[in-house]
Design brief:
The protein has 375 residues and is α/β, with parallel strands linked by helices. 41% of the residues lie in helices and 18% in strands. Strands 1, 2, 3, 4, 5 and 8 form a 6-stranded antiparallel sheet that branches. A 5-stranded parallel sheet has the order 10-11-9-12-13, sandwiched between helices. Strands 6-7 form a two-stranded antiparallel ribbon. Helix 1 crosses helix 2, helix 7 packs antiparallel against helix 8 and helix 7 runs parallel beside helix 9. The model has no long low-confidence stretch (mean pLDDT 91).
């Protein structure tokens, strides 16, 4: 998974419904560029460098997987979508929306169409003040001074007044906090770990990941399934119990909820496929004895992908021991999950077909998936 970078973006408008343009820009940045971490107050400021109506200015901090040039292209497309027209001259002009990259991590870029940090930051109080709202200790990588220091010594003495209306963070439309425990499930290669990880990072959740990689019987099972099936399922039974007991009992006061990339009942689904009938009956008795007091998730999300997509994903991640997995086995696992979920009357279950989606690479697919989960 691509690691996200921190960027700071300045927003300004001095034409039409200025607050509306700022909010629409914030919404579009969330949809196309990345997660919005913080939003400053909105400030009313005089036009800088030319005669015109007052501006409304703000700054936001975002986490983005876009590289600087790609982020710039997205911001320019948002400006265009919101009705900004190309400049008619080299002088400053009134505009419906103006979006500028101020900082991108600690990177320093000096190119014809992209300069980071923005070269005018230290000269503009209408930029420094909202930046100060977000992160006064943020250090300018070239000037080696904090935003607080730059604001104190700034020569721009323009009057700026806070507007008593706050911009809204679109992230709050995704209300995961009403759940205590969400389980993300799916077949092998469905993307459950990727999704659980993204949700935990974006929505302040405690992440519980299955420790399947530590199981020494898994590679052996894929080579000789009949020989190692019972041993594998018994080892999963013990390990999942230990892990889920530990994780669910350790409260994290700094997290809003828990999200896991598995539910312990997957043991029944896989064992029904892998074990002989008499072995499965014995296994099921042991399972219910072991897990009788384990808490169930408030929400169970099943990511469905067709077998072709699953095989493509398995091939991409390149685990040697998974090369032996056959289509028939994946089909049986999918069927087993769907039959199990149909029988669950005490769970909130969401079965979501993502066969034609790529929520890891495409943000629009990720936001669509979040909407399906909480909708």
């Amino acid at each position: 998974m691509v690691s996200a970078k921190t960027a700071y973006i300045a927003l300004g408008s001095n034409k039409g419904n200025k607050l509306q343009y700022l909010q629409q820009a914030v919404d579009a940045i969330f949809e196309k560029a990345g997660l919005i971490i913080k939003i400053s107050k909105v400030y009313q400021t005089p036009a800088w460098g030319f005669e015109s109506d007052d501006f409304f200015n703000a700054c936001i901090q975002i986490k983005t997987e876009l590289k600087p040039k790609a982020l710039l292209r997205v911001l320019k497309s948002i400006e265009s979508d919101l009705g900004r027209v190309p400049k008619q001259s080299d002088t400053y002009e009134a505009r419906k929306i103006d979006l500028d990259i101020l900082f991108y991590d600690e990177e320093v870029i000096s190119e014809k169409k992209l300069v980071i940090p923005h070269p005018e930051i230290q000269k503009r109080r209408f930029v420094l003040q909202p930046l100060h709202d977000i992160n006064k200790d943020l250090k300018h990588p070239k000037l080696d001074k904090s935003v607080a220091d730059l604001l104190e010594i700034c020569d721009d003495k323009s009057e700026i007044e806070p507007v008593k209306i706050w911009l809204k963070n679109p992230k709050k439309n995704y209300n995961f906090n009403r759940f205590n425990f969400i389980a993300i499930e799916g077949n092998i290669g469905a993307g459950k770990t990727s999704l659980a990880t993204k949700i935990s990072q974006d929505f302040n959740a405690k992440l519980i990941l299955e420790r399947f990689a530590d199981n020494p019987f898994l590679p052996k099972f894929y080579k000789e399934p009949e020989r190692y099936a019972f041993t594998l399922e018994m080892s999963f039974l013990a390990d999942r119990y230990q892990q889920i007991s530990d994780d669910l009992s350790q409260l994290d006061l700094f997290k809003d909820f828990m999200v896991s990339d598995y539910d312990v009942h997957k043991s029944l689904i896989f064992s029904k496929v892998t074990l002989a009938e008499d072995e499965f009956r014995l296994y099921r008795k042991l399972f219910y004895q072991v897990y009788k007091d384990i808490a169930r998730p408030d929400l169970y999300v099943y990511l469905y992908q067709n077998t072709q997509r699953l095989q493509e994903n398995i091939k991409k991640r390149g685990r040697k021991y998974e090369k032996e997995i056959q289509d028939e086995y994946l089909d049986k696992i999918n069927t087993g999950y769907l039959e199990f979920l149909k029988s669950q009357t005490d769970l909130i279950v969401k079965i979501i077909d993502i066969s034609d989606r790529d929520f890891v690479k495409k943000r629009e697919d990720y936001l669509w998936l979040l909407g399906e989960i909480i909708g």
